[in-house]
Design a protein that fits this description.
Number of domains: 1
Shape: elongated
Helix content: 55-70%
Strand content: under 5%
Order of helices and strands: HHHHHHEHHEEEHHHHHHH
Distance between the termini: 47 Å
Strand order of the largest sheet: 1-2-4-3
């Protein structure tokens, strides 16, 4: 359960996706459909059988969120209460007196233990994805991805946490600030190299110009409409169909590594106008610098989180130091306590981060509608139908509770996005568009 560690290590990485090392030569995928013969979309609806599935999945996922959050905290509390971290510390100290060697022993041992305890829940969640037809990834491939993610997480976490405790030893009162100063550049670097190094370990990517040159030609009209220039070498297709049946696209990286990625399932299952809207949405993230802004906001949130942990860890140590066999804050055995505090603050902050995420996704929806206006024959219906298809394939429940949306949704509900797409028409009212004039 490296999620608590990864939440720190990858907090600045919005939608950091994974990929595969070698670029493989493949035959061109089927061309996208040029037009849709589906009836106009007036609201988000599901066929009766899909509605039953979507409701069951919505309830199940809600329960799993609660179980996942509770399990995360219980695992850490159990490791502290039963002295597991203290025993790992003793083993590391018997091996070497050097803190560097102790870090290499203690940190991976602790993180692997946490992950192994949480693994059954991860397995069950993948089983659910297979059962509901959202994933087609075989178990061997899934476990391979888990192992690769674990290896990356262990290397990055050992580096960051080793630095953290080195700083705590030297500055018990300012460690939260000095560690932040060091951690943020490292995490920015991870975001930068992710499209080159991390993403290709999990999925296959090809230049969109190679697989769908006609689509690139259509996309270039959208780019010109915005008065922008996005090189074709920054447009990629991801072979998501090898693992999932759902649709997606995303922007990743920053500076020279920034790129727009469209899943091949999106291209296969949407018409050309609908795909152009999806690209326009992602182009909105690109143009509006949402990844970079998210990284800045994430860095500020990380600083606040570290400071809150610093302010509360002293009180926790006074109450539980002897029960948990922790000597002081610089003790390796204190690491699960830091995870626990960071996890609690992260859970409390989740509605804030999700509210911001829904805001930028709504901005990107507006941008997608505006940048495809005048290019798509009916830009509003293209957007609405793309959301309808996405919702059906993802089994999005049409009637989520307001609390669930507020706390857990990082995108606006599909029904809201369709309603907005149909109603948004500043041109009819002689108003100025918000982003694309």
């Amino acid at each position: 359960m490296l999620r608590l560690v990864a939440a720190v290590a990858f907090l600045l990485v919005f939608g950091l996706n994974s990929g595969d090392v070698a670029a493989q030569q493949t035959q061109a995928a089927p061309a996208v459909q040029s037009e849709s013969h589906a009836p106009p979309v007036t609201s988000y609806t599901l066929p009766p059988e899909k509605l039953v599935q979507a409701k069951a999945l919505y309830i199940l996922r809600g329960r799993l969120r609660i179980v996942d959050s509770a399990l995360s905290l219980l695992i850490l509390l159990g490791i502290l209460y039963f002295g597991v971290a203290a025993r790992y510390r003793d083993w590391a100290e018997r091996v070497s007196k050097w803190r560097f060697v102790q870090a290499i022993i203690f940190i991976p041992l602790l993180l692997l233990s946490i992950d192994l305890i949480g693994l059954p829940l991860e397995i069950y969640q993948h089983h659910i994805s297979l059962q509901y037809g959202l994933s087609i990834q075989k178990w061997g491939s899934w476990f391979a991805d888990v192992l690769k993610g674990e290896a990356i997480g262990l290397v990055l976490s050992t580096l960051l946490l080793g630095i953290l405790f080195w700083i705590i030893v030297r500055s018990p009162r300012r460690w939260w600030f000095y560690f932040w100063l060091i951690a943020v550049p490292i995490l920015f670097f991870v975001v930068f190299i992710a499209p080159y190094v991390i993403d290709p370990l999990f999925n296959k990517f090809e230049l969109l110009e190679k697989t769908h040159p006609d689509l690139v030609t259509a996309i270039e009209k959208v780019v010109q409409r915005a008065g922008m220039y996005i090189p074709s070498e920054r447009m990629f297709e991801m072979k998501a169909s090898e693992k999932v049946t759902t649709l997606n696209a995303y922007v990743t990286g920053f500076s020279d590594s920034k790129r727009v990625v469209v899943w091949d399932t999106t291209i296969q299952k949407l018409t050309t106008p609908e795909t152009l809207f999806v690209f326009g949405h992602e182009m909105g993230h690109y143009v509006l610098k949402h990844v970079f802004h998210g990284m800045i906001i994430g860095a500020i949130a990380l600083l606040i989180g570290f400071y809150l942990v610093y302010r509360t860890c002293g009180w926790v140590l006074i109450r539980f130091q002897q029960h948990w066999h922790i000597r002081d804050l610089s003790d390796w055995a204190a690491l699960p306590m830091l995870f626990l505090l960071l996890g609690v603050f992260g859970f409390i902050a989740e509605p804030i981060t999700n509210t911001y995420s829904r805001h930028v996704e709504h901005q990107a929806d507006i941008y997608g509608l505006e940048v495809t206006h005048g290019i798509n024959p009916d830009s509003k219906q293209a957007a609405a139908h793309s959301f309808q298809v996405l919702g059906e394939l993802s089994l999005d429940y049409p009637y989520p509770s307001r609390f669930a949306v507020f706390w857990f949704y990082n995108h606006p509900p599909t029904a809201d996005r369709i309603r907005f797409s149909i109603d948004y028409d500043p041109w009819a009212n002689r108003l100025s568009p918000k982003y694309v004039k």
